[in-house]
Write a sequence for this structure.
C-alpha cells in the first residue's frame, strides 16, 4: 500500500511537469494548428536560464534563502523562455504562416535541433548534465502508511501545486478575459475573429508568451526537483508533453492537464507493477496513446476536426 | 458631398483567377445600398476586400475619401466598418453573450453593456438564451445574433452578406425589417443579396454585379422596374 501511494505521488509529480509543458503545445496548436516540436527545448532552455540566473546573477548572500532565490530563478527561466518562444514565432513560424502545414512542422524540428546544440556547446559544462543547487527546498516529508514509509519532497509538492494552480489560472484567463475570448475566437475561425477587430499576430504572440512562461517555470521546477538539467531533457519531455496534448485532445487546456497526469501516472505505475518494470514503462504510454487515437482520434477532450467552408 | 464608402474599379484575384474585375459603386451616408447578382458574381469577394480580409489587385477603396485598401482588418473595423459575413460565421462553441462581447472587442467605452441590452431588446429570443452556445441555434436566430454581433462595434457602415440565406420567408421579412430599423437609427448599410426583389425594395440604390463587373446601377425602385433586371434576377421573362 505504501508503495502504491508512493508511486501515485511520483506519478502526479511527473504528470504535473508534463502538463505544464503540454499546455504550451496545446495552446499553440489550437491557434495556428502547428505542433511546435521545439517547445520541449523552450522548457530545457528555461531550466538552463534559471540555473544561470542562480549562478551568475544572484548575489551569493541571496542564494541560501530559497524564498528569495527560487522566485528570481523562476523569473529568469520564464523570461528567457518567453523571449525564446516569441523570437521563434516571429522569425521561424510567422514567415511560414500561409505555407503548407508540413513546412512549419519541419522548421520546428530544425529549431529544436539548433536550440539543443546551441545550449550544449554554449552553456559552460552542458555537454554533460549540469547540477542544480540543492541547498534549498529539498526538505523531505516522511510518513507511515499501512505497511511502509512514504516520502514526499517539498519540490514534489511544489511541482503538483504549481501545475494545478497554473492550469486553473490559465483556464480562467482563457474563458473570462477579453484577450482569452480573442484567442478562442482566433482558434475557432481566424477570419471572423479578424472581422471582430482581433489582431491575429498579437493573439498568436500572446499564445507563445503564455506557453513559453509555463515551459520556463516547468524548467525551474524540473531542475530543483531532479537536481540537474541536461540538453536531452527537452526532447524527452517534449515527446511526453506532445503525447499528453494529443491524448487529452490538442487544443484543449483541460485535456493537456489530464493527459499530462495520465501519462505521469501510467509511467510510474507501469514501471512498478507491470512486467518488465521501468524498462517498458514508455511502451505502455504509447500503447495508451494508440488505443485512444484509434477509438477517439480527437483525443479525450478535443473537438472533432471540422472542415471549414 | 463625398460618399461614406466609395469603391472604384476594384479588381481582386485569387491566384490567377480574377473574381472581381471591375467593380465601382458608392454608398452615401445613411443609405441602404445593395449589390445584387447571381452566385459567383464577386459580391462576397468585394465585401471581404473592403473589410481587409483580402487585398485588391487594383482599384481603390475610399472611406470618407481616405484609402483603406492597405489597412489591416482590425484597423478597418476601428474606422467604423463592420462586416456580417456570409453564412453568419458565429463562434459556435461560445455563448450568445460571448459572441456579442467579441463584436464589441475593439470598444473601450462603457456603453457596451447598454448596447448588448439593446440587441436583447431587438431580439428577445437572444436575451432569453444568452448563456447558451450559439451553435445550437436555428438559422434565423443565428442570423439575428450575427447582425447583433456586427452592431456591437457601433459601426457607421454595416456590410451584410446574404442575411436572408437559408431563412424562412417570415424570418427573411423579419431580418429585412431589422435592416430598415438599423437604417432609421442612423447606420449606413451595404447589403449583398441574391434575394434581389426584397433587397432592391428597401434600397436607396442598387448595383448589379455580373461576372465581376458592376453592369447596371440606379435607385432601388428603378432597378426593380428595369426589364433587364427583372429578366435576369427576378425570375420573370
Amino acid at each position: 500500500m505504501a508503495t502504491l501511494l508512493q508511486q501515485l505521488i511520483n506519478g502526479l509529480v511527473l504528470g504535473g511537469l508534463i502538463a505544464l509543458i503540454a499546455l504550451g503545445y496545446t495552446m499553440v496548436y489550437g491557434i495556428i494548428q502547428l505542433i511546435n516540436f521545439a517547445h520541449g527545448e523552450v522548457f530545457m532552455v528555461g531550466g538552463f536560464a534559471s540555473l544561470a540566473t542562480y549562478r551568475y546573477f544572484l548575489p551569493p548572500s541571496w542564494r541560501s534563502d530559497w524564498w528569495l532565490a527560487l522566485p528570481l530563478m523562476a523569473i529568469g527561466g520564464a523570461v528567457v523562455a518567453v523571449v525564446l518562444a516569441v523570437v521563434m514565432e516571429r522569425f521561424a513560424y510567422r514567415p511560414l504562416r500561409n505555407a503548407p502545414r508540413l513546412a512549419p512542422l519541419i522548421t520546428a524540428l530544425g529549431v529544436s535541433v539548433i536550440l539543443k546544440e546551441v545550449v550544449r556547446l554554449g552553456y559552460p559544462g552542458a555537454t554533460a548534465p549540469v547540477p542544480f543547487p540543492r541547498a534549498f527546498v529539498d526538505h523531505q516529508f516522511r510518513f507511515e502508511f499501512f505497511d511502509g514509509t512514504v516520502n514526499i519532497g517539498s519540490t514534489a509538492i511544489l511541482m503538483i501545486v504549481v501545475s494545478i494552480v497554473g492550469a486553473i489560472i490559465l483556464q480562467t484567463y482563457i474563458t473570462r478575459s477579453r484577450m482569452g475570448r480573442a484567442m478562442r475566437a482566433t482558434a475557432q475561425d481566424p477570419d471572423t475573429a479578424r472581422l471582430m477587430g482581433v489582431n491575429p499576430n498579437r493573439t498568436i504572440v500572446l499564445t507563445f508568451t503564455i506557453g513559453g512562461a509555463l515551459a520556463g517555470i516547468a524548467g525551474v521546477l524540473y531542475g530543483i526537483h531532479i537536481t540537474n538539467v541536461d540538453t536531452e531533457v527537452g526532447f524527452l519531455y517534449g515527446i511526453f508533453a506532445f503525447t499528453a496534448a494529443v491524448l487529452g485532445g490538442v487544443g484543449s487546456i483541460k485535456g493537456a492537464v489530464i493527459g499530462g497526469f495520465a501519462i505521469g501516472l501510467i509511467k510510474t505505475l507501469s514501471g512498478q507493477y507491470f512486467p518488465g518494470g521501468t524498462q517498458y514503462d514508455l511502451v505502455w504510454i504509447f500503447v495508451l496513446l494508440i488505443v485512444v487515437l484509434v477509438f477517439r482520434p480527437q483525443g479525450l477532450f478535443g473537438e472533432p476536426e471540422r472542415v471549414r467552408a | 458631398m463625398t460618399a461614406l464608402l466609395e469603391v472604384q474599379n476594384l479588381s481582386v484575384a485569387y491566384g490567377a483567377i480574377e473574381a472581381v474585375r471591375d467593380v465601382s459603386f458608392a454608398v452615401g451616408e445613411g443609405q441602404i445600398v445593395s449589390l445584387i447578382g447571381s452566385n459567383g458574381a464577386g459580391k462576397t469577394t468585394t465585401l471581404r476586400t473592403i473589410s481587409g480580409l483580402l487585398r485588391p489587385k487594383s482599384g481603390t477603396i475610399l472611406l470618407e475619401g481616405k484609402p483603406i485598401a492597405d489597412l489591416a482588418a482590425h484597423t478597418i473595423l476601428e474606422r467604423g466598418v463592420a462586416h456580417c459575413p456570409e453564412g453568419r460565421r458565429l463562434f459556435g462553441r461560445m455563448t450568445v453573450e460571448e459572441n456579442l462581447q467579441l463584436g464589441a472587442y475593439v470598444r473601450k467605452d462603457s456603453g457596451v453593456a447598454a448596447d448588448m441590452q439593446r440587441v436583447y431588446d431587438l431580439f428577445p429570443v437572444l436575451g432569453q438564451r444568452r448563456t447558451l452556445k450559439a451553435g445550437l441555434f436555428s438559422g434565423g436566430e443565428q442570423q439575428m445574433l450575427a447582425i447583433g454581433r456586427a452592431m456591437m462595434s457601433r459601426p457607421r457602415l454595416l456590410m451584410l452578406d446574404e442575411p436572408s440565406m437559408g431563412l424562412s420567408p417570415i424570418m427573411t421579412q423579419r431580418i429585412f425589417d431589422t435592416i430598415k430599423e438599423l437604417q432609421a437609427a442612423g447606420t449606413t448599410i451595404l447589403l449583398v443579396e441574391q434575394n434581389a426583389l426584397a433587397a432592391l425594395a428597401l434600397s436607396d440604390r442598387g448595383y448589379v454585379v455580373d461576372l465581376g463587373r458592376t453592369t447596371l446601377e440606379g435607385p432601388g425602385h428603378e432597378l426593380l422596374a428595369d426589364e433587364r433586371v427583372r429578366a435576369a434576377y427576378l425570375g420573370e421573362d
In short: Chain A touches chain B through 18 residues (CB under 8 Å). Residues 16-244 of chain A form one domain. Chain A has one domain: 16-244. Strands of chain A lie at 130-131, 140-145, 148-153, 228-229.
